[in-house]
Write a structure and sequence with these properties.
The protein is an alpha+beta fold. About 15% of the residues lie in helices and about 40% in strands. The chain starts with 10 loop residues before the first strand and ends with a strand.
Length: about 210
């Protein structure tokens, strides 16, 4: 069930013994895609790193993940129901837990779908929430002269609104990129594509932080 505005999110409880511990968004995606490919229920994921982990309150301090697995398996872990992103790239299906990025080399043309708030050090989706049954999408058309001012604001999430960035919060959308761009899901390149169909699967995944 999508979260209610201002309502509680997350519950304390230990990580299940059959859960899968992951240290990045890419590892989380791999665990999810493997389960889907084998037609198994999605495993509960214990997050020790990545942008979804940070969005859910995970510490980014150096060495913070040390001993993290012990914490997950204690009463100190917090369990969340989170959404799962899906993208059909020219007919090929990929899943993502944190973000989808299709972009040119300089970011003058891009399309981004955020389930998490963070993309590395960039607060790229300042209003994105992994439990609201929506993806925050950004259809980007920027001139080269606009790149530096936008990048300077990304660390603080102050790059929006911007006339060159069309923002939409949606459960599903389609986009034609005009020409093929490199596609990355959870930081991993999966090829190039032009036509994207994106949707969210609400509350599809349980994670512990």
């Amino acid at each position: 069930m999508p979260i209610a505005k201002g309502g509680p999110y997350g519950a304390h409880g230990p990580f299940p013994t059959e859960g899968v511990v992951v240290r990045s968004d890419a590892e989380a995606r791999q665990a999810v895609e493997t389960a889907r490919r084998e037609r198994r229920p999605l495993p509960v994921l214990g997050l020790l790193g990545g942008d979804l982990y940070r969005t859910l309150g995970g510490s980014q301090q150096p060495g913070s993940a040390s001993g993290g697995e012990d914490r997950l398996r204690s009463d100190g872990g917090v369990t969340f129901a989170v959404d799962l992103g899906e993208v059909l790239v020219d007919g090929r299906l990929h899943l993502f837990v944190a973000h989808l990025v299709a972009r040119s080399w300089l970011w003058t043309r891009a399309f981004v779908a955020m389930n998490a708030q963070w993309l590395g050090t960039w607060n790229l989706g300042p209003r994105a929430h992994p439990g609201d049954a929506l993806l925050d999408t950004y259809d980007v058309h920027l001139r080269v002269s606009q790149l530096l001012p936008v990048r300077a604001r990304l660390h603080h999430g102050a790059h929006l609104p911007h006339p060159g960035i069309k923002e939409q919060r949606t459960a599903a959308t389609q986009v034609d990129l005009d020409s093929p761009l490199t596609i990355r899901v959870d930081g991993q390149a999966v090829g190039r594509g032009r036509r994207l169909a994106v949707r969210v699967e609400a509350d599809a995944l349980t994670v512990v932080v």
